[in-house]
From TrEMBL:
Its main location: endoplasmic reticulum. It holds the Pfam family Alg6_Alg8. This is Alpha-1,3-glucosyltransferase. It comes from Tuber melanosporum (strain Mel28). Its EC number is 2.4.1.-. The chain crosses the membrane at residues 156-173, 185-206, 226-247, 282-300, 347-366, 372-393, 405-426, 446-464.
Length: 466
């Protein structure tokens, strides 16, 4: 780290060259989802966007993202107009693949710009002569995150662009002269009125708000996603699976209809066999409660670091307690926490299990053999390089402060990850073939959930005790 400090621009060039090699790689159903959204927004009037259902992958993102897809569609027509036909289900010509992959890389430049703007404002208290080094390491860790590589550039989404908007809004909030602009990007204060009016006003005028909300909040999909996101409900579901085994000995009643609902991995209502059912209202109230706690702290101590902490905890709350959370949403926590990870050694102690769990939890998204080495080698390399660099650069805590408890937890947690990856990726197939296909997913999700929850507990203790 002392001799080689690559700039963000140089890393972006190298990363782009690597990502170009991934164009032929696996692409999930999300590729077809976004192609269909390109077609919907390009070929239909706005008032029909949220009613169109030729494909099962109906438009269910907010209006501003639909406008983003419309803008992309204006360029896509020059590559291959056929991709913009809503009837061309599953269409994936070479031109379509190249355009969609390239659009992710191009729009990700906003993330690069946001990180460059954030560098001088990094809220880390170091010797002024070396203060740029930790901020630089954090920026590089975010831009080169395995999360973006796996979710955006292989699995296919646009998280890099969206988190670029988030980081840019966080950066603008630091300076009094730019806070108004931050408000419009981040929807703070009065700005939210104009944003809501612009996004939902036309649909209110057309009387389509119920239809729009039914798409944006699909409660019928069930509490857990097909692959459990590593949150509180993954642990809850795992405990329910364990209780099925011990219930006869304890004379506990079992809901027979639930014996296949959770482990099938299908989208739909999740029914628990032993534990009480969870309703959307319960998840909403829990999410709101834990978010309000962090906002109260921000209200009483309105500093920039508290602002970052509150954003991180709001991300934790949404991910841990939300309804039908996708595993990809872990980036809601990892990205803002990264901006605080080097505040002192205790914060880094809480960040490590999140970094490991968050990225390992994304592995099942790429389940084909050619991508195994890519996701494994890249993720392990990222963890080794950046967690080692963070440890060398982190601000020390007071001399008389005992080593943070999460350091020991993290060491054990990381060690367990090695046999877990080996089992879920290789050994299970050898031992069981096609049987118990949900078992590796359950183990991966439950393991990762322990790391995410442990990280959350540690972060809460640091945030509320400061």
């Amino acid at each position: 780290m002392d001799k080689f400090h690559p700039s963000l621009r140089e890393c972006a060039i190298a990363a782009t060259a690597f990502k170009l090699l991934l164009f032929p790689a696996y692409k999930s159903t999300d590729f077809e989802v976004h192609r269909n959204w390109l077609a919907i927004t390009h070929s239909l009037p706005v008032k029909e966007w949220y009613y169109e259902k030729t494909s099962e992958w109906t438009l269910d993102y907010p209006p501003f993202f639909a406008v983003f897809e419309w803008i992309l569609g204006q360029v896509a027509r020059f590559f291959d107009p056929a991709m913009l036909d809503v009837r061309n289900l599953g269409y994936d010509s070479v031109q379509t693949v190249y355009f969609q992959r390239s659009s992710v890389m191009f729009t990700e430049l906003l993330l690069l710009y946001a990180l460059q703007k954030h560098l001088p404002l990094c809220p880390l208290k170091f010797d002024p002569e070396s203060s740029k080094r930790p901020a630089h390491a954090v920026a590089l860790s975010i831009f080169l995150s395995p999360g973006f590589l796996i979710v955006d550039h292989i699995h296919f989404q646009y998280n890099g662009f969206l988190y670029g908007v988030l980081i840019l809004s966080i950066t603008l909030a630091r300076s009094p002269s730019t806070r108004l602009y931050s408000g419009f990007l981040f929807a703070l204060g009065v700005g939210i009125v104009g944003i809501i009016a612009a996004a939902f006003g036309p649909f209110l005028y057309w009387g389509q708000i119920p239809q729009l909300l039914s798409r944006l909040f699909p409660f019928s999909r069930g509490l857990c996603h097909a692959y459990w996101a590593p949150n509180i409900w993954a642990i809850y579901s795992f405990i329910d699976r364990v209780l099925i085994i011990v219930a006869p000995r304890l004379d506990l009643p079992i809901n027979q209809e639930a014996l296949t609902s959770v482990t099938r991995g299908l989208v739909g209502d999740t029914t628990f066999a032993v534990l009480p059912e969870i309703t959307p209202r319960t998840t909403f109230l829990l999410t709101l409660f834990f978010q309000i706690l962090s906002l109260i702290k921000l209200w009483t101590n309105p500093t920039y670091e508290t602002f970052l902490g509150a954003i991180t905890l709001c991300g934790y709350a949404s991910f841990l307690f939300g309804w039908h959370v996708h595993e990809k949403a872990i980036l809601l926590v990892v990205i803002p926490f990264s901006l605080l990870a080097l505040k002192d050694r205790r914060y880094l102690g809480a960040f490590r299990p999140l970094a490991v769990a968050g990225h390992v939890s994304l592995f099942p998204l790429l389940f084909t053999a050619p991508e195994f080495l890519i996701k494994t080698v890249y993720t392990i390399s990222w963890l080794v390089v950046f967690l080692t660099a963070f440890d060398a650069l982190v601000s020390p805590v007071a001399v008389n402060t005992r080593r943070f408890l999460l350091d020991r937890f993290t060491m054990v947690f990381i060690i367990v990850a090695i046999p877990l990856i080996a089992y879920t990726s290789l050994a299970h197939k050898v031992l069981f073939g096609d049987r118990y296909e949900f078992l590796p997913l359950m183990f991966n999700s439950s393991y990762s959930a322990v790391g995410v929850v442990g990280s959350w507990v540690g972060f809460c203790w640091l945030f509320f005790s400061a």
